[in-house]
Write a structure and sequence with these properties.
0% of the residues lie in helices and 61% in strands. The protein is mainly beta and 112 residues long. It is globular and about 40 Å long.
């Protein structure tokens, strides 16, 4: 058993939960199913999504971007020099992600 660290709705039919082991559970309400999205090496700290994209921040300062339709990890961004991602928000009108971490830095990332 492991503790859940964050939960968010990423589409009308999908929720995601992050856990302390670095796994993301993708929950499909329509299919009543759950699958793991992999890639993180430390606990999930923040989750945010938009459409098919899921942004997940972790305790080691990385944000991974998954496609929830294909279940694939698309790429990763080293945000916070080995300290946790503590805040993250998608800004759809500008196709960007704003993230901050325990190092006091703020990242503005164009994901389009």
């Amino acid at each position: 058993d492991t503790s859940l660290t964050d939960i968010t709705q990423v589409s009308p039919q999908h929720f995601v939960c992050g856990d302390a082991n670095g796994k993301i559970k993708l929950i499909d309400l329509k299919k009543f199913s759950m699958v793991d999205l992999l890639g993180h090496k430390s606990p999930i700290t923040k989750l945010s999504g938009l459409g098919d994209l899921l942004f997940s921040g972790s305790g080691n300062g990385w944000i991974l971007v998954h496609n929830i339709t294909t279940r694939q990890c698309l790429y990763g961004i080293d945000v916070c020099d080995k300290v946790a991602v503590t805040a993250m928000e998608v800004v759809p009108d500008y196709n960007c992600l704003v993230a901050a971490g325990g190092d006091g830095n703020i990242l503005l990332f164009d994901y389009a």
